[in-house]
Amino acid sequence: MSSSSPATPPADARPDAASAARPAAAYISPLHSPLLDDRGPRPLLLLGSTGSIGVSALKVVAEHPERFRVVGLAGARNMERLAAQAAVWRPRLLGALDGAAADRLRALLPTGYRPEIVTGQDGYVAMATHPDAAMVLAAQVGAAGLAPTLAAAETGKVVALANKESLVLAGDLFRTVCRRSGAVVLPVDSEHNAVFQALAGHDLADVERIVLTASGGPFRGRDLGFLGSVTREQALNHPNWSMGAKITIDSATLMNKGLEVIEACHLYGVGLERIGVVVHPQSIVHSLVHYRDGSFLAHLGAPDMRIPIAYCLSFPHRLPLSMQPLDLVRAGTLTFEEPDLSSFACLQLAMRALAGGPELPVVLNAANEAAVAAFLADRIRFLDIPALIGRALDEMDVSSGAADLAAIQALDAATRRTVGEWIARAERTAP
Ligand SMILES: NC(=O)c1ccc[n+]([C@@H]2O[C@H](COP(=O)([O-])OP(=O)(O)OC[C@H]3O[C@@H](n4cnc5c(N)ncnc54)[C@H](OP(=O)(O)O)[C@@H]3O)[C@@H](O)[C@H]2O)c1
Questions:
Q1: Which atom of ligand 1 is nearest to the CA of 243?
Q2: Residue 51 Cα to ligand 1 middle (Å)
Q3: Segment 230-243, tens digit of pLDDT
Q4: Residue 156 and residue 119: Cα distance in Å, rounded?
Q5: I want to staple 152 with a disulfide (CB 3.0 to 4.6 A). Which of 97, 120, 157, 234 is the partner?
Q6: Domains with residue ranges and CATH for the chain
Q7: Could you give the CA distance from residue 157 to residue 30 in angstroms, rounded to a whole number?
Q8: In Å, how far are 78, 160, 310 from 189, measured between CA atoms?
């Protein structure tokens, strides 16, 4: 290990006031719910079933069909995949992005199978709050996942949370809602799941620091000169993980780790000064908890999202999974290094946003989603992503606040609009 001190936020990013205002370290939600007392197969609803996490989740379910009952599946545009999943699992509820997608879906379903099909945000919210669902897997991508995930929490569901953007946008709101409704949040994100497991049976008050590991993405060790000319294909080529396009670009910019730092602060109720980030290119150690007696508890495993997904879906039990066990001898040397905050500005921008109060993470996330979509459409360069986010943090008017869902969604929309205008103007003036 080349560094014994995982990267800390820059001194000017320490959120002294913000962390002082937060409650003492405490997990975001209760960990017990009558919905976890299985008296039969666990009723499961998957939002984002057609994505990378959704597909992995259904593989877990397929290995243990007696343990789960799939009550709903939601995709957005990929109706071929949703129809194929629905044909296997026959849930009574299906969700699609809009009426056109729903019509395509209906035409693809097997004869004689007539589920209820709902559409759009209202439809996803109706699914997430449906009385038949005990556990909701929140695996839609981006801010679009916020309203249904929050609605699931408001109705006291067990939320297996992959959609990290929900906590980035509304972490404080989730904490309040879960305390009131009794909803349980279980982290699917591999790093937070690792921390969750390393904390089991321990007191958060004994935690010195939470150390999130980062693979470093495809451009680890590269300088700004190199990053200036990388292509979309290079950025989509993650060395260890197979994921959706947006999170893969976030991994290449290190914004994914920035979002995860914010997610960790909200999940565990700790300030930024108690989160570290260390680059670990092998993606075997998924994160660590450093206790005040000097002990470090780490979670190790193959880089396969079925492991944290299965942990959440079967919580508080564990399910056997058919996969090659991790072979530490074959894995060989495990290395750790400091993240390069100057070449990968997004990590620092996320820390700055968290330190700046609840509005700036909304601006950060919306600017990032707009910039990543433009990069994936070949409209901007890789280094334009952090530049646009930094400009949005500097210039967006956040006076309307981010205290509730409506305010968050308004600020999210305003930021996307503004960043979209900046991109369009730059295209018009480009030689
Ligand atoms: N992949 C991973 O290994 C991983 C690890 C940790 C956390 N996560 C988090 O999990 C979430 C999903 O990631 P992913 O990699 O599975 O993404 P993905 O493969 O791109 O899948 C995204 C899912 O969201 C749906 N979707 C897209 N736009 C939507 C919209 N406007 N409204 C509602 N649903 C929409 C997609 O539907 P269609 O495909 O039908 O259009 C798909 O089901 C993200 O928040 C990500 O950060 C992922």
A1: 1
A2: 5
A3: 999 999 998 888 89
A4: 23
A5: 157
A6: 11-26+192-321 (no CATH), 34-182 (3.40.50.720), 358-429 (1.10.1740.10)
A7: 11
A8: 23, 9, 12
- Least confident residue range of 20-24, 283-287, 379-383, 413-417: 20-24
Max alpha carbon distance in the chain (Å)? 66
Nearest to 72 by CA among 50, 94, 103, 51: 94
Other Cβ atoms closer than 10 A to 361 = 29
CB of 139 shorter than 6 A to ligand 1: yes
Between CA 73 and CA 153 the distance in angstroms is 18
Who's near 209: CB < 8 A, 6+ residues apart? Answer: 6, 274, 275, 276, 289, 290
175-194 tens-digit pLDDT? 999 999 999 999 999 999 99
User: Ligand 1 center to residue 141 CA distance, Å?
Assistant: 3
Indicate whether this model's pTM tops 0.85.
yes
Q: Is the CB of 305 under 6 A from ligand 1?
A: yes
CB of 120 closer than 6 angstroms to any ligand 1 atom: no
